[in-house]
Amino acid sequence: MLRIHFGWRDIQNIRLAQQPDPLWELMCAVCRWQTGQGPFAFGHWRHETAGRLARDPHAARALHTLRAFVPTSGYIPDLLTPPVTGEGLEAGLENVRATPRGRLVSELTRLAETHPAAGGAGSPRIPAAVSLGLVTNLLRDSFHTLLEPYWQHVRSSVGDDVAVRARTVLGGGTAALLESLRPFARWNPPYLEVDYPADRELRLEGRGLTLVPSYFCWRRPTALADPGLDPVLVYPIAKQPLDIVRAGEERLEHLLGRTRSAVLADVASHRVRTTTEVARSLGLAPASASYQVGVLRGAGLVVSCRQGKHVAHAATPLALSLLAGNGRSIRPASKAWSAS
Fold this sequence. Notes:
It is a single chain. The chain has 13 helices and eleven strands. It is α/β, with parallel strands linked by helices. The chain has three domains: 2-17 and 153-236, no CATH class; 22-149, no CATH class; 242-325, Orthogonal Bundle (Arc Repressor Mutant, subunit A), CATH 1.10.10.10. The chain starts with a strand and ends in a 15-residue tail after the last helix. The relative contact order is 0.15. This is Helix-turn-helix domain-containing protein. InterPro entries: ArsR-like_HTH, DUF5937, HTH_ArsR_DNA-bd_dom, WH-like_DNA-bd_sf, WH_DNA-bd_sf.
């Protein structure tokens, strides 16, 4: 059990990440890949990923090497999961790259001491010459292999969880938020008692706690090993298996087309969304994103309203019903405005 000690200042400083953290999700996904846990939740993901790895030797080598840094249990170097900023994968990788050399050596030494190499011919091993550039490249390549094809669904599922927790806070405050972590954790003031594979004590000492919802976290929460770092608790969310989601997505794509259905899902996954945000999220040219939003607006699936210098878009109830009926996990969003 992990017992987290709260003071009154810590209660004031509980934060909830608003979107999935790419590197925490990657650590959890690498563990799920290796263990085979959750065959119903992750079986389709493993099958598709295995096919991509078979076709891409570079990706297979990168993941094989990264596995040496991410054992399935016990210590994982904290440098692989820098502070949660909500700024995306590249910002997280820059934080990894900025790790002091002394910390890299210290954490890899601890990893080697706690997880000696198995010695088999196929066992992943930490390279003899480890650089932060190598580590960040392994992380980036493995993210593209394991997570990028599913990232929109991961974001949507985490968004569902955030919406539920936010309503919990509004109705009952931070104590209700901590209570909502059952069955993974129990709020027993002034302690949060967390289901954990080892007995640990974590004293927040006024630093507060960041809660990070995770799609690939499985059965029990996880946390940083170093108690001196900013406290984080990563917890598993309810999830819809990807094969069910993919079937719904295919039906929606037949109706709207792949690009337009992706634009609609991106808009629906947020309270409001600007054209620039849609374009950046999906890798579209701004003119293309604007055109697709216009078509969706004409079909009654999106409403738009100018907010300052930008035009913001939101999904209509018809769009939300359409997405829900096709397997999309879209959180309901209370609009700041509505069409008359």
